[in-house]
Amino acid sequence: MRNMRKTILASGLLAFVSQTSAQIASVCPTNDVCFGLNIPEATASSGNGDIFFQISAPSDYGWVALGQGVQMGGSNMFVVYTSGDGNNVTLSPRTTSGHSPPDFNSDAQVTLLEGSGVTNGKMVANVRCSNCNAWADSSADFKVDKGDWIYAYQPSGGPKNSDDQSANINQHESAEAFSWSYASAKGGNSVNPLLNAAPSGSGSGGGSATGCVPRPTGAAATATATETDKSDDDDVSSTQQGRPTNFPYDQRPSWATASPTGRPWAPPNKNRRQEKRQEIKYCDEVSTAQFRPSGASSHQKMVVAHGILAALAFVILFPAGAIAIRLGSFRGAIWFHAAFQGFAFVVYIIAFGLGAYLANELSLLDSSHPSIGIAVFVLLIFQPILGFLHHSFFKKYHRRTVWSHAHLWLGRFVITLGIVNGGLGFDLAEERGSGSRAGKIAYAVIASIVWLGWVVAAVIGERRRTRTQNHPPKYSESPYGEETVLSEIPHPQNGHYGPK
């Protein structure tokens, strides 16, 4: 028994050493989609040179992609889909400068290596990239401890089955930016370090995370669970425990390549068996633990907060305040309007601050959404000033002045622009993999209804104003709901009362 354990321990250590020497860092966003990375020693020392990466996903997916960068625009992407015969894979390096679909990048120096293809329901691409340290819009330094990457995939629509590297691809259903730690990726000088790194996930039969054990499936999982629950007493033979010892090393089941855990001399008990289960390092657990979206917890919360506050300001508050002043006929409506719009502006100031921080952190200041957001913020600063001038001169002249028209039309323009920019924000979030198509559709529907209601309110308000000019009541309403006694209104000129 002790000799058998020594053999298993030695085998486990050998398996660990064989995997760590390959220096493959794995991340698996799901059980079915995994990526592996190796940075050879020479590249890690100089900061540039060849790198190797593996992309794997179910073969019935439309496509899967890995890219360098923090967002789709300007990233160095590598899209993989099944080839024309369905038995191999097509590697398509691509790039894009904005929200448009990515185009084939003929400048990429990439090579599909041995081990690529479609096997057991998985499409796998083992890739060597010789110029991934620099591309059209950015660069990467492999001497550092981590790098910015993105992934995306489309599980719907069936396999692509195309040999065309420029084939059209449907928009992704899932995507994310993440920070990839290079600690376990650096080292070695193999011409194909990915050859023996089986992709993790269901149907793969293996895992590529360093120093881990593939999780048993099917009968092997049942057998492993049964053996873990059995006594570990030294007097029990390996045959009694159901662990044959006559198979070669490369055919050993997963439990045979793992280092024994716990103390061999300790008495068997339930707690000890539980410790054994917990101390086994399975590949899917390691891969999931290694996947850390870039600033996911803080940045994602800030993105959500920014979107909610900005939408609240431009889809709810600003239009509601404008509708109130158009249709309201109560005394003091002007002060309600001023206070309501002031509160909406404060909400947008918070949203703008969050957005400006995110745009600066993620290098998005040259994108259309933050650029328009800045313009909207600047224009909104002038609105209360113009509103004050409009109100002051209207009280003095009982008619609209140039300040009135400037305030009215700037407000209409800014609210409309803010609503449109919200849609562009959803586009940007979707491009970066953190947006929701359903959320974008819901925003578009609600914003459209509110905008149309606001326009209708403006038309009704103008018609009321026209009728008031032609048939003034006992109290004449100003555009801000102020009531003025008729005796205070100048005599009609050409049959029309102010305001004009």
TrEMBL record:
Signal peptide: 1-22
SMART domains: B561 (SM00665), DoH (SM00664)
Chief location bin: membrane
Sequence intervals crossing the membrane: 303-327, 334-359, 371-389, 409-429, 441-461
Stretch list, region Disordered: 200-277, 467-500
CDD domains named in the record: CDH_like_cytochrome, Cyt_b561_FRRS1_like
InterPro entries linked to this entry: Cellobiose_DH-like_cyt, Cyt_b561/ferric_Rdtase_TM, DOMON_domain
GO annotations of cellular component type: membrane
Keywords, in A-Z order: Electron transport, Membrane, Signal, Transmembrane, Transmembrane helix, Transport
Residues annotated as domain Cytochrome b561: 273-463
Location of the protein in the cell: Membrane
Protein name per Swiss-Prot or TrEMBL: Cytochrome b561 domain-containing protein
Source organism per UniProt: Massariosphaeria phaeospora
Highest classification ranks of the organism: Eukaryota, Fungi, Dikarya, Ascomycota, Pezizomycotina
